[in-house]
């Protein structure tokens, strides 16, 4: 357990999320997901969390572990074709994690998702949160479009609305 990480999490609150993602940014992200999903049969969710609680920090929970928890809790895994993807941002750590269901993960693998995360984190370091997320959505969607093209019977199984945890 690193004391610096604990302090960073304790001082990063919901106001930090609102500063990074004002209402217009959340709307733009929702639109980007909606427009991207019109081109493929996959499901994309975006969730942002300001910080972890003290118990999670004490257990030294990583952003990756938290993203997997959220993938489950948000039921991103519960899609007909196992093609749900969660883009998770832990703001206090400036850490992006992409968790993909087995139907799409097997096609791309961890390295492919990590590349997208690194590009998003680069934009975040410049303070360009909305742009970084939208670029990430487009990158994820390009893979979903390749492996899960849109069908006339495709339905939107998960909400496109960004989640603030």
TrEMBL record:
Gene3D superfamilies in the cross-refs: 3.10.310.50
Q: Name one Pfam family in it.
A: TPM_phosphatase
* Leader sequence segment: none
What residue ranges are annotated as transmembrane?
A: none
What sequence ranges are listed for the domain TPM?
A: 27-141
Q: What is this protein called?
A: TLP18-3, Psb32 and MOLO-1 founding protein of phosphatase
